[in-house]
From TrEMBL:
NCBIfam families in the cross-refs: L31, PRK00019.1
Gene Ontology, cellular component aspect: ribonucleoprotein complex; ribosome
Descriptive protein name: Large ribosomal subunit protein bL31
Known role: Binds the 23S rRNA.
Lineage summary: Bacteria, Pseudomonadati, Planctomycetota, Candidatus Brocadiia, Candidatus Brocadiales
InterPro entries per record: Ribosomal_bL28/bL31-like_sf, Ribosomal_bL31, Ribosomal_bL31_A, Ribosomal_bL31_sf
Cofactor binding description: Binds 1 zinc ion per subunit.
Amino acid sequence: MKEGIHPEYMETVVTCGCGESFKTRSTKPKIAIEICSKCHPFYTGKLRFVDSAGQIEKFKKRLQKSQKIEEAIK
């Protein structure tokens, strides 16, 4: 490998949104993730909604608005 062109490869702490953390190696000192294998529905078998940027709330508001319009028409 050429000298001086590659980033430093160091030990990294990865922290999940659920509070779980583990160590690995990367070019970044800290990595934050939203979901890990300890809380992912595929691995746990439990259904969990991962709300990315309030999309669930936006959908619920649209649904309520459309239901109000349907009631007003009737």
